[in-house]
């Protein structure tokens, strides 16, 4: 991870910022409309430390192990792993269970710097706004390579096919996601890597945005030709071509996320100048047109902000006045005919009652299979003996 030629200065957050140190302004249509309350570093109820980050790009880093202290908490068990981070159950000084998100060992200096910067920005956003719909950062490790949040283990929008949501419930979930993105944009932040797996569900099945600003999605897509990480369908064409993520690319991703909620699978269509959206042709025409305006290829042709997107969503039944019409295709408004996604009640119960955990390793799976065969053989032998005695 060392980068001797780095001239990047260390990131620093004051250990205790005064109310005048940080101001966050909400903006809409390029005009300041309100000012979020100034940031004050009040004591954390669980004893997590005030933010002090001094990032050294040349410092070595490894994956955490149980017992490590990061971001003021003691990590205990790993509950998830992504390509760039691990997530751990951890114990705050108060004794309450929380989550610690740690940069994966072996990450390069650029990813480490991005992680530290995103964690610091998320902490400031969390303290400044308290906005619902975004996972709240509680503290950041002094290294900048780990941060603490509340613990969520209920799954993500990837599990929508098991939830049995009606169309209205799916649209309500999307509104919450879009409103959270609007709050980020108002604070000058870009999510940059929206996809179903980055939208977690809380205990009431309400969406929560994770990984805000942590992923260089253009780099991920370039290194992931087989789409293992499932980002490809949600990445705007200009970002794939190397442009930085911005509010317009977030709007593209929101359109694809709405399409995912209508389908319960990743959108099959790729970027088009003006998409036909054949996969959701049976959806209400207003929703098709809203998705189309989000995912049109030219960024300037998309919604100018999330506010306009939400306004159209509230009026999607009036299909001739929302979104973007296709120049060569006329949508038929089939509001009442649109079917819900496939629903498996048993799978839903399993999903919501069991915390998400890491999949078993191949070795563990092999041993479990062998034990199952041995048990089956013993039961068969016992039944044979019983039958012969009769």
> Which CATH top level class of the largest domain fits?
Mainly Alpha
Helix and strand run: EEEEEEHEEHEEHHHHHHH
How many whole angstroms does the radius of gyration measure?
24 Å
- Based on CA inertia axes, which overall geometry fits? globular
Tally of alpha and pi helices: 9
Extended strand count? 10
Kindly report the spatial arrangement of strands forming the biggest sheet.
3-4-5-6-8-7
Q: Give the averaged pLDDT, no decimals.
A: 79
Do you know the CATH architecture of the largest domain?
A: Orthogonal Bundle
Sheet of most strands: 6 strands, antiparallel
Task: Note poorly predicted spans.
Answer: 1-38, 343-362
Cα(first) to Cα(last) distance is: 72 Å
CATH fold node name of the largest domain:
Transferase(Phosphotransferase), domain 1
Total domains, how many?
Answer: 2
Determine the CATH superfamily of the largest domain.
Transferase(Phosphotransferase) domain 1
The proportion of strand residues reads 5-15%
Coarse structural class: alpha+beta
Overall helicity: 25-40%
Protein model, in words:
The structure is a single chain. The chain is of the alpha+beta class and 390 residues long. The protein has two domains: 25-149, Phosphorylase Kinase, domain 1 (2-Layer Sandwich), CATH 3.30.200.20; 157-321, Transferase(Phosphotransferase), domain 1. It has helices at residues 109-129, 167-186, 217-223, 237-240, 247-263, 285-295, 306-314, 345-353, 362-389, and strands at 25-28, 31-35, 69-70, 73-81, 85-91, 97-103, 137-140, 146-149, 199-201, 207-209. The strands form three sheets. It has a six-stranded antiparallel β-sheet, with helices on one face. A two-stranded antiparallel ribbon has the order 1-2. Strand 3 and strand 4 form a beta hairpin. Helix 2 (167-186) packs antiparallel against helix 5 (247-263) and helix 2 (167-186) packs antiparallel against helix 7 (306-314). It is globular. It starts with 24 loop residues before the first strand and ends with a helix.
């Amino acid at each position: 991870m060392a980068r001797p030629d780095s001239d990047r200065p260390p990131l620093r957050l004051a250990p205790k910022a005064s109310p005048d140190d940080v101001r966050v302004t909400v903006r809409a249509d390029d005009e300041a409309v309100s000012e979020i309350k100034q940031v004050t570093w009040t004591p954390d109820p669980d004893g997590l430390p005030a933010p002090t980050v001094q990032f050294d790009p040349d410092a070595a880093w490894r994956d955490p192990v149980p017992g490590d202290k990061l971001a003021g908490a003691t990590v205990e068990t790993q509950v998830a792993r992504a390509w760039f981070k691990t997530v751990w159950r951890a114990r705050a000084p108060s004794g309450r269970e929380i989550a610690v998100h740690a940069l994966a060992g072996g990450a390069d200096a650029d990813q480490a710097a991005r992680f530290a910067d995103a964690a610091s920005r998320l902490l400031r956003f969390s303290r400044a706004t308290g906005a619902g719909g975004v996972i709240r950062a509680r503290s950041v490790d002094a290294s900048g390579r780990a941060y603490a949040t509340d613990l969520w283990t209920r799954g993500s929008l990837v599990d929508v096919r098991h939830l049995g949501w009606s169309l209205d419930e799916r649209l309500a979930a999307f509104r919450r996601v879009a409103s959270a993105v609007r709050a980020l944009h108002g604070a000058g932040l870009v999510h940059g890597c929206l996809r179903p797996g980055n939208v977690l569900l809380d205990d009431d099945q309400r969406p929560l945005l994770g990984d805000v600003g942590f992923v260089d999605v253009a780099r991920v897509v370039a290194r992931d030709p087989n789409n293992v990480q499932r980002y490809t369908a949600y990445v705007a064409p200009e970002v794939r071509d190397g442009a930085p993520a911005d509010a317009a690319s977030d709007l593209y991703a929101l359109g694809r996320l709405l399409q995912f909620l209508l389908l319960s699978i990743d959108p099959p269509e790729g970027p088009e100048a003006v998409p036909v959206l054949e996969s959701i042709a049976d959806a209400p025409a207003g929703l098709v047109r809203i998705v189309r305006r989000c995912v049109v290829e030219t960024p300037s042709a998309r919604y100018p902000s999330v506010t306009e997107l939400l306004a159209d969503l509230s009026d999607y039944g009036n299909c001739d006045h929302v979104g973007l019409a296709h120049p060569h295709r006329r949508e038929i408004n089939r509001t009442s005919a649109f079917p819900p996604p496939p629903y498996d009640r048993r799978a839903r119960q399993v999903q919501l009652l069991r915390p998400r955990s890491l999949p078993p390793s191949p070795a563990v799976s092999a041993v479990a299979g062998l034990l199952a065969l041995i048990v089956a053989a013993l039961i068969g032998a016992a039944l044979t003996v019983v039958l012969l005695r009769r």
